[in-house]
Amino acid sequence: MHTLYGPETRGRDVARLYGREWTREELLSRTGDMSQLGGVRLVTLADGPERGVQAADVRTRDGLCFTVLLDRGMDIDQAEYRGLPLAWVSPTGPVAPSFYEARGTGWLRTFHGGLLTTCGLTQAGVPLC
Fold first, then answer.
1. How deeply is 78 buried, as exposed, middle or buried, from its count of CB atoms within 10 A (0-12, 13-18, 19+)?
2. In this structure, is residue 126 part of a structural domain?
3. Within a domain: residue 129?
4. DSSP string of 43-69?
5. Looking at residue 10, what is its pLDDT?
6. Mean pLDDT of all residues in the chain?
């Protein structure tokens, strides 16, 4: 929802859906819950090596859905648009940061791929060596 100002809206919250603008009241009268139109849901992953990873599942009204891995530097894991995948995801899937291996190519055992990978804070700034 965003607020538009003008004689037709008078500062009310409106959303553009299906080719027209809807007020919050109009949408609430036609939906059981505003989350049907999109939103963000905080989750904790609980399966195998991903156990304990905090994530946010995001859905937009236009069909963009993605998962932000909060404990992995805000990496974007799964992403799709109207059911079509946008990201490559490795067979490891998301892995908790506690499994990270800093030496050599050990990090490849926990690399999950995804739409956006930040490579963590160790990849930013002046080298430590």
1. buried
2. no
3. no
4. EE--SGGGTT-EEEEEE-TTSEEEEEE
5. 52
6. 81
Give the tokens for residue 51: 């156990």
Q: Using one digit for the tens of pLDDT, what is the confidence trace for 68-103?
A: 999 888 889 999 999 999 998 888 888 888 888 878
> Is the Cα torsion angle 122, 125, 128, 129 positive or negative in sign?
positive
The answer on 47 and 16 residing in a single domain is no
Q: Split the chain (129 residues) into runs of 10 and give each run's mean pLDDT.
A: 45 73 85 84 92 94 91 88 91 86 81 76 56
What angle is formed at CA 37 by the lines to CA 33 and CA 42, rounded to 5 degrees?
80
* Residue 71: alpha-carbon gap to chain centroid: 12
Closest C-alpha to 78, from 60, 55, 46, 47? 55
Pairwise CA distance, residues 77 & 86, whole Å: 10
Tokens of 49: 């090596």
Whether the CB-CB separation of 79 and 65 falls below 8 Å is answered with yes
According to the model, what pLDDT value does residue 72 have? 83
Say how many domains are in the chain: 2
Which position has the token pair 């949408």? Answer: 27
